[in-house]
Specification:
Shape: globular
Protein name: Phage recombination protein Bet
GO biological process, one term: DNA metabolic process
Organism: Parasutterella excrementihominis
Number of domains: 3
GO molecular function, one term: DNA binding
Distance between the termini: 39 Å
Largest sheet: 3 strands, antiparallel
Helix content: 25-40%
InterPro entries: RecT_fam
Strand content: 5-15%
Strand order of the largest sheet: 5-8-9
Order of helices and strands: HHHEEEEHEEEEEHHHHHHH
């Protein structure tokens, strides 16, 4: 790393830390945790983007795609796009309308709207910007959020395109494949079920306070995420906890880039399930066969045991007075 890059990064970190009323060293530690990277070149690019567009790197406004172990280009999350648009003084509203015509897309179980139409108004401009995004052109078959929430992701895509054209904004992150898992098993560290990266709204840590993101969990696979959240689902269903406490625990423990996806898994897991017919005979299983099963995204929470995997990046879970189950 060149001295010039190191000096620029240090200077930017200091400016962001001053705005947050935080010690620069602690801010940099929290920043590395929030973005999931340590390379100074990547941090410099992310902070430069945030400073230019007045975004917060610690609250999920930007993220770093990681593909095959390499840092990608800093990209704006959907949350970041909405922050940019709604904070502009000349923003004058937006409306979204889905096509009544439904089409069948390979990889989806049910037909979806053919397109989404987003209309965005800008003060001082007589005519609004009208954008249509077609599902056939935008659907990403290897993306978990696109498979589970195609309408929502299509809406986000339309909003971003309308925002770019309405306000002549740069297109960082516009074509990012959220949650894409390709043949090389590349992953994006910002995948979430809503296409949105969110963190709990909180004041910046004071100089003497330790950075909170250091204890966040980050799941390496979808199966691991479903398994760990499944522990909370089972606890709520069995009456050992409540949905509110499960949400609180996820918010406190899960990395911001995966929080929304975990919350969605929790919601889906708690939905009423159709009653299964009584089995003709009770199958016997050894303890070893039960333990060897692994919960996958396709399995129902009630049909497989919950398997907890250790997290390399996560701090050991410590139970507090608010915790009732060992998530």
């Amino acid at each position: 790393m060149s001295n010039n890059i190191a000096a620029q990064t240090t200077s930017l970190v200091r400016r962001f830390a001053e705005k947050a009323n935080c010690d620069p060293h602690k801010y940099n530690t929290a920043l590395e945790t929030a973005l999931g990277v340590k390379r100074q070149e990547t941090i410099l690019a992310a902070l430069t983007l945030c400073e230019e567009l007045e975004l917060d790197p610690l609250r999920g406004d930007v993220y770093i795609p990681v593909v095959n172990g390499n840092d990608g280009k800093p990209s704006i999350s959907y949350q970041g796009w909405t922050k940019i648009v709604t904070s502009r003084p000349d923003f004058n509203g937006v409306s979204t309308e889905f096509s009544e015509n439904k089409v069948k897309i390979e990889g989806l179980n049910s037909p979806v709207p053919e397109y989404v139409q987003v209309t965005m108004w800008r003060k001082g401009i007589d005519h609004p910007t009208v954008i249509r995004e077609y599902i056939e052109e935008t659907f990403q078959s290897r993306s978990l959020p696109w498979r589970k929430f195609p309408r929502r992701m299509l809406r986000h895509k339309g909003f971003i395109q309308a925002a770019r054209l309405t306000f002549a904004l740069r297109g960082d992150g516009e074509d990012v494949d959220y949650g894409n898992i390709d043949a090389a098993q590349a992953t994006l560290n910002a995948v979430d079920a809503d296409g949105v990266i969110k963190t709990p709204v909180q004041q910046a840590a004071p100089v003497q306070a330790a950075p909170q993101p250091a204890a966040f969990m980050r799941f390496k696979t979808e199966a691991e995420m479903f398994s760990r959240v499944g522990v909370l689902v089972s606890a709520v269903k069995e009456g050992r906890s409540t949905k509110e406490k499960a949400v609180k625990m996820l918010t406190k423990r899960v990395h911001p880039s995966q929080l929304d996806q975990c919350l969605t898994i929790l919601e889906k897991g708690l939905e009423p399930q159709p009653s299964a017919p009584a089995p003709q005979e009770l199958a016997t299983e050894t303890e070893e066969s039960v333990v060897s099963q692994v919960l996958t995204p396709e399995q129902n929470f009630d049909s497989a045991p919950q398997v907890m995997s250790p997290q390399e990046d996560a701090a050991p879970a410590v139970l507090t007075a608010d915790d009732e189950i060992p998530f």
